[in-house]
Specification:
single chain, alpha/beta, seven-stranded mixed β-sheet
Amino acid sequence: MTRRTVRIAMNGVTGRMGHRQHLVRSILALREQGGLDLGNGETLWPEPVLVGRREPALRALAERHGLTEWSTDLDAVLADGTVDVYFDAQVTPARADAIRRAVAAGKHVYTEKPTAGGLAEALDLARLATGKGIKHGVVQDKLFLPGLRKLKRLIDGGFFGEVLSVRGEFGYWVFEGDWQEAQRPSWNYRAEDGGGIVVDMFPHWEYVLHELFGRVTSVSAHVATHVPRRWDEHGKPYEATAEDAAYGVFELEGGAVAQINSSWTVRVHRDELVEFQVDGTHGSAVAGLRGCRVQHRSATPKPVWNPDIPVTESFRDQWQEIPDNADFDNGFKAQWELFLRHVVLDEPYHWDLLAGARGVQLAELGLRSAAEGRRLEVPELTG
């Protein structure tokens, strides 16, 4: 078996998500398993080139993982003809410019979301990349999580009959940063730095709904900044200028309705940090990151409302757990593998910058809906 090397400029991997999920659990995990078997007598070997603004952090990260290539000069890395792919996990305001430079340099592009700060810019990136003839992809990791893959299996098998509604709950309590350290960076709570839960999460909800249930055709959203004062990484107080909770209603092509609450100011009373309940004429399911439980119409109980007596049955016990029936790898790694196969073997891949632009569109319209206090149509995007 021969080894084929692909060199990947990885920008922003000193951050939590870029480091843990993309560098360690995806690219380095591929190296630890001996590379990606392409199935044609070749093994693809990913060679990361770390890129960022902070030299000490880059050097320390490279040394920790036994890597030798890193740089604070993005343009120099993009000018290197041996670099094949540019990956971006920077803060949102820095992303579009870097992607544009990578496209101009002829690099294939794989990026976190949102791809840009607004729809016009996101569409421009998609058109530039397509016009340049490069391959481009956007991280849509939740589609590859075990819970949602089980949910997709149920949909493909016709379990639900007609899907009527989807209800999602996402979030957890993010500490303010004064008496306990916050679990999220402070820029997430500053609109001027690209923060806000709508920009962060609505792109996720767009692709989950689009891929599993149908295109989003309208949005009605309400947003709130429930905790207006927080403390940053240096212990200094600051005013939160971005929303920390969003409550959205999405109409879907085909008639189903989705309601999704997103909050960094909620304490968890559910099995997983995100859960989706899908109700259909023939059955229902509740899917999280890993688990998925179902209740078929033939096994649906007949509760009767009576507030004068204690509950006599355990509703949770009336649901059946869906078995794995497969080995589920890390969701980020699974999508990386598909993108790299797309780059080197030209295998089909549709989670591209246009798909990323749909997420930016939904976030933009969600914020506008909240500001104007009305329901907005979501026009279909074309390349």
